[in-house]
Amino acid sequence: MAFVGSSQFLGSVLGGGVVRRACAVGGRQMVTMAALKLYVKAGENGEELGDCPFSHKAILMMSAKNVEYDLEMINLTNKPDWYLELNKNGTVPTLVDGDEVVDDSDGILKYVEEKFPEPPLLVDDPTASEATAPVFGAFAGFVKNKDPEKEEELKATFETALDGLDAHLKKNGPYVAGEAMSTLDFNLAPKLWHAKHALAHYKEYEFPEKFDSVNNYMDTIFSSDVFKKTLYPPETVVWGWSKFFK
């Protein structure tokens, strides 16, 4: 989908995701495609799927819903002007459904759930969200650290987050919200995929055996059909985090 000149959007808010009606480009009516388009981060070669866990979250939702859509890669180091017209922040993922534009991953999950309600996957569980929320930030702080004096502190912070997640999964598993896979897993699993492979490469760190529920969860989710159909290799994760080590 190409954009030329300035664009105008009429918008509304849908469940936290900004949904805009892309009605005109350069003063002309925009020609839209009937199929859904999902714009995501491109990999190193610009053509294969990149390492963005938020893009991965949206892809998991589309796959689990068996939705037909076009997947298009965006080079985040050289964003096309037309993409910045579509998404002013230049972030990924972005979902385009005809003349509707949803420009954040949580909004995409809600939009897809409302448009394709079967099977039901959207779960709102504050307790589960509280257990999963600290993991990615703690991992990012640990993996990016270059100060030896802070290493043990940041490692401990990450393992505290894992401890909370492990306790939740032990009580409520096998999935984040219980017996069935849900959007909470689509949010968490890509982040754990990053943590597992980035920490192994950059920190020579393996998830301790004491977090048996987390390890079992990763084994289960990473071997699931929906995850295997949507994943990118560990090397892509390593490439994605390499910018912090140059």
UniProtKB/TrEMBL annotation:
Domain GST N-terminal residue range list: 42-120
Domain of life, per lineage: Eukaryota
Keywords: Detoxification, Oxidoreductase, Transferase
EC number of the protein: 1.8.5.1
Matches recorded under Gene3D superfamilies: 1.20.1050.10, Glutaredoxin (3.40.30.10)
Enzyme class name: oxidoreductase
InterPro entries: DHAR1/2/3/4, Glutathione-S-Trfase_C-like, Glutathione-S-Trfase_C_sf, Glutathione_S-Trfase, Glutathione_S-Trfase_N, Thioredoxin-like_sf
Catalyzed reaction equations: L-dehydroascorbate + 2 glutathione = glutathione disulfide + L-ascorbate
UniProt similarity note: Belongs to the GST superfamily. DHAR family.
Protein's organism: Rhodosorus marinus
Any GO MF annotation of the entry: transferase activity
Lineage: Eukaryota, Rhodophyta, Stylonematophyceae, Stylonematales, Stylonemataceae
GST C-terminal domain sequence ranges: 116-246
Designated name of the protein: glutathione dehydrogenase (ascorbate)
Entry's Gene Ontology BP terms: ascorbate glutathione cycle
RNA-binding is among the record's keywords: no
